Amino acid sequence: MALERHGSAAADLPRVMAGFETIRRYRNSTGQIIAKLLPGDFYVTSSDEVLDTVLGSCVSACIRDPRRGVGGMNHFMLPRPSGNGNDTWDNVAGRATRYGSASMEQLINRILKAGGERSQLEVKIFGGGRVLSSLTDVGNHNVIFVRDFLKQEGLRVVSEDVGETCPRHVQYFPLTGRVRVRHLNSRHSGDVVSHEQKYLTGIEQTPVAGEIDLF
């Protein structure tokens, strides 16, 4: 399962909204436009695109305004405890909330800026698996966080596929609201876990500034 970003947008793809030029986009074998999200990304579109990501303990919120035809997805992971040998959640709660809330706020604000109406937004959430055994169930804390955030914002969650112990491959079709979720087996889990561990380490070192058609 390749998680790294490769290449650049093809010349024949429609222009992205400002600020999303670094998101990898390409056409698949059927001509469908795919936008590939990595940890820390979010993306908003009003075009016919598929937003694609792989989640372990990370969470993605898929949000759209079905009337205005605009929607997007994020992919966030909350930081792990650093350097003190104590991996309780309390040690990272402050930084975790900052990163999670920033991702959610940016996604929602860009959808509204693109013409979405807050009262019309529908939300689906995915991920939060228990895949990082060295940590205090970060995936579950991610799920709790995003549920609480959305409740406080008054946004409705219309469906979700979260928790358990497996990574997920998620594809979101923001124009229709359809989501395809594939629970990944152990053959892919090692790659996902390794990638998330590297991402968590990077956050700590950076100053704080079978396919199932479910929905």
UniProtKB/TrEMBL annotation:
It catalyses: L-glutaminyl-[protein] + H2O = L-glutamyl-[protein] + NH4(+). One of its GO terms (molecular function) is protein-glutamine glutaminase activity. InterPro entries: CheD-like_sf, Chemorcpt_Glu_NH3ase_CheD, Cytotoxic_necrot_fac-like_cat. GO terms for biological process: chemotaxis. Pfam families: CheD. Its EC number is 3.5.1.44. Keywords: Chemotaxis, Hydrolase. Belongs to the CheD family. Probably deamidates glutamine residues to glutamate on methyl-accepting chemotaxis receptors (MCPs), playing an important role in chemotaxis. This is Probable chemoreceptor glutamine deamidase CheD. It comes from Povalibacter uvarum. The lineage of its organism: Bacteria, Pseudomonadati, Pseudomonadota, Gammaproteobacteria, Steroidobacterales. The gene is cheD.
